[in-house]
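Lab channel / #folding
Pinned by the channel admin:
"Please post every new chain as: sequence first, then the structure tokens as a reply. Keep commentary short and put observations after the output so the thread stays searchable."

First post following the new format, from NK:
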Amino acid sequence: MLGNIKFIGELGKLNLIHESILHKCIKTLLEKKKRVPLKDMGEDLECLCQIMKTVGPKLDHEKAKSLMDQYFARMQSLTNNKELPARIRFLLQNTVELRNNNWVPRKAYVDNGPKTITQVRQDAAKDLGVFIPPSTDSIRNDFFMDSSSFLPGKIKYDRETLGGLADMFGQMPGIAPGVIQDHYSPTMGRHRSSPLFNGHSGNSNGSHQPFENESKPFIKPNQISLRPAQSFIMNKNQVPKLPPQTMMPSPVGQVTDNRLKTCDFLFMAPQLGLKANPPPIQEKPAKSNKKAPPTKEELCKMTETLLTDYLNNKNVNDAVSAVKEMKAPKHLLSEMLNKIIVYSLDRSDEDKEHASTLIHTLCTEGLVTGDNILQAFLRVLDQCPKIEEEIPLVKSYLAQFAARAIIADLVSIADLAHQLENGAHFPLFLLCLQQLVKLKDREWLTDLFQQSKVNMQKMLPEIDQNKDRMLEILEGKGLSFLFPLMKLEKELLKQIKVDPSPQSIYKWIKDNISPKLHTDRGFVNILMTSFLQYIAYEINPDDDEEQHAAPSKDQLEEEKQLLLSFKPVLQKFLHDHIELQVSALYALQVHCNAKRFPKGMLLRYFVNFYDMEIIEEEAFLSWKEDLTQEYPGKGKALFQVNQWLTWLETAEEEESEDEEY
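Reply from TO:
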């Protein structure tokens, strides 16, 4: 999870994720989970600290200051909570202090990442004054030794013979003499463990024997390697050459003198290497004809020039070619589209249409994606308060762009709705729907809206999120046709009161309700509810609870006759549709629940529906077994009719048995 949060933070730093998404992540990590103890929130809080360190400076601006203050107030309170592990509390405290310090860390971050071999050589040349050339086959030879030195009969040096040479080579330059380096020098241990430096000739008595065989000649000059340990390797051009006489083979009698001369030279060699100024290491830049990608400022200027030319000559192919030549980085594509939209906002409708055509063509060519378009759209919305000062109708113009993008399948209506939930930038979503009606037609938009399954109530401000207020707003915007059933709910009851005859009701439904909705559960629910409300009003105009609980015989008879009069209409829409019959029973359940389940009402209607053959046995039993919680009052309803349903089930089984015999 921490890795994912780091990834999201890095995307946010590159402006590839909108700020609203980052705020949602922070809120999710910071909020108290239900049934989760605070001590188990350590991982979420660690991720919170990580995302704050990554994108905190970007989010901490004037517009989001109140949100950031709330976040850090919560984090400050958590630092004092003893239920959290100490590590998490310290992380929170460090993050709070980081913001208090204007997002400047206490110490600069140290780059401990991997280095290239060139960087290693440059560091060695800078710190040690020693140039490390590239690896060659000669570097693989051991210091002062080749493979033949391990063979028996060869000459071996002891520590005294070398005159402290091992100590000198084992000591790093710049360290005061006398300091013990045994555990720290990488070359010391290697030299001491070598037979050349440990003072032993390999025999059992351990005696010092500088020469193992006096008759054999001394080591040949061409076998001597003057390279020190690997960390002190010098350039071959820097190693001074021996005088000619030292390069000649020496007889046995001159061994001591040659040995001293050799040791003197060895003492001198590393000093010369350290004092010599290594040649500067210069990397030749790779020759490349690739042009560097434009910066954000350069891209904006190029886009503005491109748009000016395009809107003058209207040649979309030239504009697309110009965009290809710009070679904009992927993380700046939404910025480019943002510039296109903003630039054309105060232009004519024709220019706006041409700008939309350009965006559509760019998407068709694969230069931009639908996500880029949506991100650009959201960025323009963030700038709306400033833009509205110069362009008051900016939301109407943005609605045109959004509508054209939806028609061209560049952005889905569900994706747009998700970004505008709870009345964000209200009434932009409704303006977009109005533009879709203008550009297409009502039927097209109705089908698209129903397929999107957008919850229209959530698109309104929280104070207006109820059915009555929603229908009022939609009627004001000319969009009530999107919810024909809501309009039906009000108008059908009025029509029944005007003329309750089944012929008149059926004709009105046929003229005003689309045939597609005749098999819709919502339509059947409204139809049954309207009939039940009309019957209740006719037998009890004052809505007296006592009369509902104990109706007279006349009222019961009137109730039955009214229901019988509506039988042809109900059978017309419910016959052979078990699912619709179940919806009708749920409408009855909700009606009784609203009346507080008067004694015997639900059972009377069940019996009448069964006797009048409006509802079939299968629908009753399906309603009983259905476990949906969408409609209130199911428990009380079952309590009132359970005995009758048991009888119905038993009677049906007996009938099936009789048919078998």
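NK: Residues 634-660 form the longest helix (27 residues).
TO: also worth noting, The CA atoms of residues 442 and 481 lie 8 Å apart.
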